[in-house]
Amino acid sequence: MAGLKVEWNDWCPGCGNFGILSAEQQAIQELGLDPKKVVIVSGIGCSGKIPHFMRLPVSGVHTLHGRALTFAIGIKLANPSLEVIVNGGDGDQLGIGIGHFVSAGRRNVDITVIIHNNGVYGLTKGQASPTLKLGVKTKSLPQPNINSDINPIAVAIAAGYTFAARGYAYDVKHLKELIKKAIKHKGLAMIDVLQPCPTYNDIQTKEYYDKRVYKLDDDPTWDPVVKKPEEVEEKMNKAIDKSMEWGDRIPIGVFYQNELVPTYEQRILQRSPSYLDNPPASQTVEFEGKPITDIDDILKERSIG
Ligand code: SF4
Ligand code: MG
């Protein structure tokens, strides 16, 4: 989809998605990434439109509902020199996509996952999404939410993500810095972004979050980075405990970071030493219209189970 950009943006006025779009573009620019080496992969939902609205010459892939992560992992493994960012809603990634979201943690592929968390399915008129709390009644629900919610930070850490953070769509500067950290992180990084949907979620509004969010960075004793293996359990537990704080105060910032876990790319490299020099995307597969690659040999060499 490279180069296919629309000239208009149909998100509702005041939508938190604008802040995420802005922060993401600024992060890509400030990191000095070559836009041609950046791929934005999205699912289905209001957030899924983000590749179309990018004002940078990055590549974009607007995929299927709940499947963006699988496309992203495939793109990254085929061409590990690319910087791959997944954008998807809470409904997209934590509802239909939750299986992929959880299993991705086992692999620790070096990509960034951004959740546009608005508590509703905005594109389909505001049904309760997996992050809406039990008993909350937003304006499009006939009765209060009957389901309990998923905590994206806790799920990500328990699943094996090696970077977990929470941002706020209206604090673009802070979110931009989080996205930069997530991109620079070596491993699977997730940012849960509190994203007001002024059209369908009249509870978790900008006013609601403005008076509640506080930054973990403001606490000089908060240190989410694992520096040695013995710290893993303690830092995981602290991060999950902190992520449960939700009431008059809601923390944002980095909850957990562990770069001691090998990435999936490093694991492949151990079995296939030529992987980074000659990844699948740069291999010649045909000559004069005829396949020249023996798929059986490739599968044998890359037998990574
Ligand atoms: Fe944003 Fe909600 Fe409108 Fe979708 S419905 S564009 S999430 S405000
Ligand atoms: Mg949503």
Write up this protein:
By secondary structure, this protein is an alpha/beta fold. The chain has helices spanning 17-30, 50-53, 68-78, 90-96, 98-104, 152-159, 172-184, 206-210, 232-243, 264-271, 295-301, and strands at residues 38-42, 59-62, 83-89, 112-117, 120-121, 127-128, 163-168, 189-194, 213-215, 225-226, 250-258, 286-287, 290-291. Helices cover 31% and strands 18% of the residues. Strands 1, 2, 3, 4, 7, 8, 9, 10 and 11 form a nine-stranded mixed β-sheet that branches. Strands 5-6 form a two-stranded antiparallel ribbon. Strands 12-13 form a two-stranded antiparallel ribbon. Helix 9 links the parallel strand 10 (225-226) and strand 11 (250-258). Helix 4 (90-96) crosses helix 5 and helix 6 packs antiparallel against helix 9.
- Top CATH class: Alpha Beta
The CATH topology turns out to be: Rossmann fold
The oligomeric status of these chains comes to single chain
Per DSSP E runs of 2 or more residues, the count of β-strands stands at 13
List the domain count as a whole number. 1
Q: For the CA atoms, what is the radius of gyration?
A: 20 Å
User: Could you state the CATH homologous superfamily?
Assistant: Thiamin diphosphate (ThDP)-binding fold, Pyr/PP domains
Tally of helical runs: 11
Mass-distribution shape: globular
Bound molecules: iron/sulfur cluster, magnesium ion
Strand content: 15-25%
